[in-house]
Amino acid sequence: MSLELTTSSKIANYLLQIKAIKLETEKPFQWSSGIYSPIYCDNRIVLSFPKIRKLVCDCFVEIIKEKYNDTELVAGVATGGIGMGMLIAEKLDLPFVYVRPQAKKHGRKNQIEGLIKKNIKAIVIEDLISTGKSSLNAVDALKKEKVNVIGLISLFSYELEDAKKNISKSGLNYCSLSNFSDLIKIALSTNYIDTKQKEEIFKWRLNPQKWREAN
Questions:
Q1: 7-44 core/surface letters (b: 16 or more CB in 10 A; e: else)
Q2: Are the CB atoms for 102 and 95 separated by under 8 Å?
Q3: What's the pLDDT tens digit per position in 112-167?
Q4: DSSP 77-122
Q5: d(CA 90, CA 121)
Q6: In DSSP terms, which residues pair with 156 in a beta bridge?
Q7: Which residue ranges make up each domain of the chain?
Q8: CB 95 within 8 A of CB 147
Q9: Is residue 163 within 8 Å of residue 184, measured between CB atoms?
Q10: Nearest to 156 by CA among 125, 133, 126, 179
């Protein structure tokens, strides 16, 4: 357990250093869903840093070998899970596909890009879990094609209650390399944020939809 926590904290620290994650309580960010948040996360930036990219990829691979060693296919959730998913598939010498939010309106009108086979065992790779809806949408798309989804792994999780409920309801096996709790611990210990900012960020996590109105 201590090893997992240390790895999670190390990744959180790197994400702050390279500005893949930003914390700002005074000028919050607006998500595509319309929610205002003091946290903004773009883990695609990890791909631009070879050392961190390798660490993250190795952590994904370690979890897959330990918990999902019968994986036959790696599926990345577009767009954040595509780059890392490809690296993971390459390291494991497995086929790779990626899943769009919805089917294209033109051409072959695919939602899943790449070759899939019925009953193949797939692990889904996501860069970020907020509510979990986009990830579960990808899982549902794979299941409709008779893919056997055996797990979901994300690089980072906000640890929101909505995500916990949605993923738990789906019955899907899920884990994350790093998370909100370890991020805040690192941000405090490195003076990235102060105690007052920490309290405000925790307020947001309790009720993201209403946080802006309360401020």
A1: bbbbbbbbbbeeebbebebeebeeeeeebebbbebebb
A2: no
A3: 999 999 999 999 999 999 999 999 999 999 999 999 999 999 999 999 999 999 99
A4: ETTHHHHHHHHHHHHHT--EEEE-SS--SSTT--SEES---TT-EE
A5: 17
A6: 128, 178
A7: 2-214
A8: no
A9: no
A10: 179
Identify the architecture of domain 2-214 in CATH.
3-Layer(aba) Sandwich (3.40)
Q: Give the C-alpha separation, 10 to 190, whole Å.
A: 12
SS3 state at 38: coil
Token pair in block for residue 183:
């991020």
Quote the CA–CA distance of 60 and 25 in Å, as a whole number: 31
pLDDT in tens, 86-118: 999 999 999 999 999 998 778 778 999 999 999
Structure tokens at 105: 């309106």
Q: Which residues pair with 149 in a beta bridge?
A: 122
Q: What does pTM read for this prediction?
A: 0.93
Give the tokens for residue 58: 């190795």
